[in-house]
Amino acid sequence: MLWKKKPAVDSKTVAELIEDPSAKDAEFSIMLLPGAATSSPAQTPVSTPPVEVPPPVLPAGGNVGGSAAAQGPSGTGVLRTEEFWGDLKGFLTQRLRDDAEGERLAGMFRGAWEGNKQ
């Protein structure tokens, strides 16, 4: 667990980590390290139920680019969808924590792409 982007000491509680107990917000992060060994080799792995993946939504006509095996638009075809630009705007807004700036930058990227597409 990370507190202020630094590993938190295992022996401290959350209350001990937060300097101001009257603070309304506290942001923690989790850092996962690959290849970590289990503490007990006798542990049974947790089984998860199978996940059902819904079929992809294809545009009218049933396929993209003439291939029946295609699973939706890819490459520059994705850039032609409103979903892509909405996702980009959402990503920028979330990362910047500023709706107006996220929308402005998404519009700038889209304008640049539309001005240069072939």
In words, what does this structure look like?
- The protein has about 120 residues and is mostly helical.
- Among the domains are: about 1-30, no CATH class; about 75-115, Orthogonal Bundle (GTP Cyclohydrolase I, Chain A, domain 1).
- The chain is built from three helices and three strands.
- The protein has helices spanning about 15, 80-95, 100-115, and strands spanning about 1-5, 5, 30.
- The radius of gyration is 23 Å and the shape is flat.
- The model has no long low-confidence stretch (mean pLDDT about 75).
Structural class: mainly alpha
Query: Hey, roughly how much beta strand do the residues contain?
Result: 5-15%
Globally, the shape reads flat
Instruction: Indicate the percent of residues in helices.
Output: 25-40%
Largest sheet: 3 strands, antiparallel
SSE order, one letter for each helix or strand: EEHEHH
CATH class of the domain at 75-116: Mainly Alpha
Q: From the 3D structure, determine the CATH topology of the domain at 75-116.
A: GTP Cyclohydrolase I, Chain A, domain 1
> Biggest sheet, strands in spatial order?
2-1-3
Q: What is the terminal separation in angstroms?
A: 47 Å
Mean pLDDT: 75
Uncertain runs: none
